[in-house]
Amino acid sequence: IVNTTNSSDELNCIHPTIQLNAEGGVSYLWDNSLGTSNSIMIDTAGIYEVTGVGLNGCENMASLVITEDFITPNIDIVNLTGTDTMDCNLSSIELEAIGGQSYEWMNGLVLGENYTVIDEGMYYVQGLGLNGCPGLDSIFIMDLPNPILTVNSEVICSGDSITLMAETDQPGGTYLWSQGLGTDSMVIVSPNSNNFYSVDYELNGCVSNTAVSTVSVLPTPVASISGDDLICSTQPAVLNGSSSLPGGTFEWLPNNETLSSITVYPLVDTDFGLIYTLDGCPSDTVYFNVEVIPTPLLVVPDVAICEGDVGTLTAYPSENGGTFNWFPGGFTTSSITISSDTNVTYNVSYTLNGCTSEIQSAELIVNEIPSIVLDDIGICNGDSGILTAIPSTPGGVYTWSGFTETTASLEVSPIVTSNYTVYYELNNCTSPSVTAVVTVTDQPFIDVSDIGLCIGETVSITAEPSVPGGLINWMPGNYDTETITITPTESVEYTVNYNLNGCLAETQIVTVTVDTVPVVTFDVSATSGCPPMNVVFTNTTDNAFDCVWDMDGITTMNECSGFSFTFWDEGCYDINLSMGTPYGCTASTTMEDLICVLPSPNVDFSVSTSQVSFGSSEVDFTNNSTNAVDYIWDYGDGTTDSLVFYPGPHEFDIDDEEFFPVTLYGISEFGCIDSLQLMIFVDHDAIIFAPNSFTPDNDGLNDTWFPTYSTSIDENHFEVQIYNRWGEMIFEAKDFSNTWDGTYKGKVCQVGTYTYRILYKRKYSEERHHVVGHISLIR
Fold this sequence. Notes:
Number of helices: 0
Largest sheet: 5 strands, mixed
CATH class of the largest domain: Mainly Beta
Oligomer: single chain
Low-confidence stretches: none
């Protein structure tokens, strides 16, 4: 295998692919499916093998190892100057690239390992290794310019101070101010006129520009005030402001007015201040005092008089010693007396210490003498009434004779007709008195009753008063007669009121109830059935009342709710239900042939004998039934015959039964059933066992005596009697639960022989029997 690309048999960044040629044969086969060509191009490290075949057909194999090196070199930039920042003291920086075989600086496309930087920026270098692979490194170089310095300029008023502040973009250096102001960044200056200030700045030997501050000084104006310095308290004072320099603004204290001249109204001595501002420079505050002389006050109250009287008007000053002036009239005294038929007004002023009060007005009010009206009223005996006086002019006070009330209305409750007097005072003028009569009437009453009627009927209702002659009122309708005639279509309530001489009877409420004719309906539980047929009747009529049921003449039932009735005889029956309302409205309904009782069989049979016994237990049955189509015989001994009209003789199997209930059921073609039951009695022998002795010694054995008996004995007709030797009955029992314990009347009987007598009859037989025997009482 021959490497025709390089001699190192290595893949790298210079030779990323290698061409291999196989030589010495006529045909070739490369491993790893690389083909059969004599030449291949590879890009992966590894062992490559090829098998060649010669002209003689013999094979031979050759192999070649290919390696690779694509490792990126570690390129670094070394700062030979030792700093990344250029300034006024350092104009260039030397850089050196290491870690490669060759280098190219991207900023200036300079080849070689060294580079000189003179400008600020990011610098890149690419280096190639022995394998031809590139590496990259970068460095940022800063060029720091000289610091820039600024300082503020200001405009101030004369006499003020200002702070100058120097600022730089590169802090940490030192400042130097002109005029010996020092080395701080801030200084305070107070120039009397326009002035200039300069400052320099140095950082690490680098000097900034020189910054200059201009301070302009404006003149401060002087303010002054002139005007009225002495006034009366009700007069204004005019104050005028002025300044040493024109063109500014005024501010007055304490009311903050801004005109050069102001008008003020102080009530007491007051200092007024003025500040004058020009171009933002305020003057010193100047003050002006206004002295205030109090203006006298005057009070003149109105005076009211009644028609025909004389009145006096009086003026009251706040301080005496001045002069009065009334007009009209020109009076100069504090009081004047006048007479007038109508209201009249006078004006007056008062002067003290040269100050005149405000003009005051007073009115002489001439009031009319009022009048009142008081009407008579009527009340019911026992009630109270309200007397109300109506004045010609409202707003006054009332005086009722004999009462303390002062209002227009007076509530009274006399028991007899009485007089009441009142007079009226308004504005101190009193009216003539007036008198009213209160008439007392006994309270009437009215008699009227509720009424009911059927819808469509007309009815008259009368309200009878106890005392006639009053006013009657029916509502609704507003009728005014004692009797009204109405034809209402629905129930209604009338209110009846009666007024006799102002005395109201108690209101009566009359209820007129209008009944509607009921629609009669009812339900039944069944309409046909076998006798006895029991039917439940249910009244479904709304508001049922006074109900009468007619069972086709069989009977009638007074029942408005549900009930049941039994039909015994076959046939169909008409049912009628009638009912009314509380006010006589009636209605009814009849349902013909509603209930039909189907024909029932008539079951009857007879027996050849009603008593059987051991050895004679056969009975013959004769069926006498009619209207039946099917029969069932139940012999009472657990056996039956079905669908047999005549069953023939039946033999009973007797054990300890007392009787056999034999029942015959007959079934009609409609399924109606009738039955009849006859008893076949069993004649058992009567057996009675009576012990001949007993020992009543309380040992729990044989302490009492009583006979035992067979079941054929009738318990309701069984009696035991015991007699002593003298024939005296000492024990008697008429039931099976009472036994003899050998005592008589609570005492122990003597040992000996006693006689018993037993009376009995057998069941199903009326023949009486008795048994007599003896008992030995042993202790």
